[in-house]
Automatic annotation (TrEMBL):
Oligomeric form and interacting partners: Monomer.
GO molecular function, one term: copper ion binding
Leader sequence residues: none
Residues of the Plastocyanin-like domain: 83-195, 360-497
Organism: Streptomyces spongiae
Name under which the protein is recorded: Multicopper oxidase CueO
Length: 499
């Protein structure tokens, strides 16, 4: 695949897999481009998706597991947000940032029932915050914009882990700088463990048969300057590097030797805006075991796993022969990546015979929403400004505020009044999908979520219950997880009150 930098990028000839939007949109974000007055057009499939093959291999880097100390029943983790350099485009040095390192961050393991304390020091030059994406914790500890802290300061949230087994992640969430900080590398995975029978039956040895995969599609110019806003994305010739655990896979297929027959993969789309679909290169199925907010009712065979920005999923593979995993990248914003990338070849070197997967992984009782309080949420656009319920949420004062009460049950209709792609994310509690563009959910969409795609002109209905935490000062957030849209105002506040 040849992009407009002249560099050949790896892609198969299966096509762009471009999302077909409701309302006949053939591209993404053209309204914003027009509003900017930019002379720009999306490249054609032929221009961007020339067939090619990887010429290099490298061993998969597994993020370090962050060591913790436990004293008097509290488990303490230490993180430092810091700047550094890394190669986002192979052979080119970029200014980056990460946690405890130059790019990305270590994986944290939390256990249900434990109390954790995080001492997080800001060694950057700007304010930052650390949001624990998907965690059910008090609003004061959530890491949203109200929790931003200045350079040189240390923030020390502490809370009990109420979540069951799932894959979460952590990243900045300060007003106006979220996209900039995340695209430069500030992201890491969180694994929540519990004592359930399902967890005991599934692979769980980190780095051996339980493998994190942090996927990103970024935007960079040829000098390695990583772009994060509209001006940057529309500037000159850009490359759209695809990374797995911080390694560029444009022309490199990573390798992993599986020493157990069954391997569990936790995949996160940490891209600012692009959509990533994971599939097998041989056309085989993946055995999905979890969505973002926990196990499915049972292991489910799927042909692919589509993740919008911020989305996660878990799957297992039982292998007797090598399998190559592919990332299909689809532009999610005004401009972005595209194509199919062989990002990881898993080669078995095991002699064990695992037990059959449990017939039941989880019990998910579907909500009866007949008595739920109905609420309408709109995703809006006015020129270059994004909004929720008509309010441009670039400051805490300008945001729309959703008021609810502890113990309430609600059903929300999220309507996308734009022709743009959005990735709707709700803090605090998981939700069930009730409708997707007027259709009832099926298959893995019957699981629990905190982030879900809302296509241009489309809508979703979601249901949730607000449990455990109330606060009359600190708010949770609801927003688009296309990070540029969040920074441009598509964010609202959620306040859960006692009464």
């Amino acid at each position: 695949m040849t992009n407009n930098t002249g560099k050949t990028r790896k892609a198969k000839s299966k096509g762009l897999h471009r999302r077909q939007f409701l309302g006949g949109m053939a591209g993404v974000g053209l309204a914003a481009v027009g509003a900017a007055g930019a002379a720009f057009s999306l490249l054609t499939d032929a221009e961007r998706n020339t067939a090619g093959a990887a010429t290099n291999t490298a061993t998969l880097t597994v993020p370090d597991l962050l060591e913790a100390t436990t004293t008097d029943g509290t488990t303490t983790f230490t993180l430092a947000a810091q700047s550094g350099t890394s190669e986002v485009i192979s052979g080119v040095t970029s200014s980056t940032a990460g946690y405890n390192q130059s790019y990305l961050g270590p994986t944290m393991k939390w256990t249900k029932g434990d109390t954790v304390l995080l001492n997080i020091t800001n060694n950057l030059d700007d304010d930052t915050s650390v949001h624990f994406h998907g965690a059910h914790i008090p609003a004061e500890m959530d890491g949203g914009p109200q929790n931003a802290f200045a350079a040189g300061e240390t923030w020390s949230p502490t809370f009990e882990i109420l979540d069951e087994a799932k894959t979460l992640w952590y990243h900045p969430h300060a007003l106006g700088t979220t996209a900039e900080q995340v695209v430069h590398g500030m992201a890491g995975m969180i694994i929540v463990e519990d004592g359930s029978d399902a967890s005991a039956a599934l692979p769980s040895e980190y780095g051996v048969d339980d493998i994190p995969l942090v996927l990103q599609c970024l935007a960079s110019d040829t000098s390695g300057d990583i772009k994060y806003n509209l001006t940057g994305y529309l500037s000159g010739s850009l490359a759209y590097p695809v990374l797995c655990n911080g390694t560029n896979v444009d022309d490199t297929t990573l390798t992993f030797t599986a020493t157990k027959t069954r391997t569990r993969f936790r995949v996160l789309n940490a891209s600012p805006s692009d959509i990533i679909t994971v599939q097998r290169g041989d056309g085989g199925t993946l055995t999905q075991i979890a969505t973002e907010q926990g196990y499915l009712t049972s292991a489910t065979e799927v042909s692919s796993i589509r993740l919008v920005a911020g989305g996660r999923a878990e799957f297992v593979m039982d292998l007797s022969d090598a399998v190559t995993l592919q990332a299909v990248v689809t532009t999610g914003w005004v401009r972005g990546g595209s194509g199919t990338y062989d990002f990881l070849t898993v080669t078995p070197d095991a002699s064990d015979t695992p037990d059959d997967l449990p017939s039941t992984l989880n019990t998910i009782e579907r909500y009866d929403t007949s008595s739920f309080t109905a609420r309408e949420i709109t995703l809006d656009q006015d020129g270059l400004e994004m909004a929720i319920n008509g309010s441009v949420g670039t400051t805490m004062d300008s945001m729309a505020t959703i008021m609810t009460t502890l113990g309430s049950s609600e059903i929300w209709t999220i309507t996308n009044n734009t022709m743009l792609e959005h990735s709707f994310h709700l803090h605090d509690v998981p939700f069930q999908l009730i409708e997707i563009n007027g259709e009832e959910p099926t298959g893995v969409d019957l699981g629990w979520f905190d982030t879900y795609e809302v296509v241009g002109g489309g809508s979703i209905k979601i249901a949730m219950q607000f449990t455990d935490f109330a606060d009359d000062t600190y708010m949770y957030m609801l927003h688009c997880h296309l990070l540029q849209h969040e920074d441009e105002g598509m964010m609202a506040a959620l306040m859960v009150m006692e009464s």
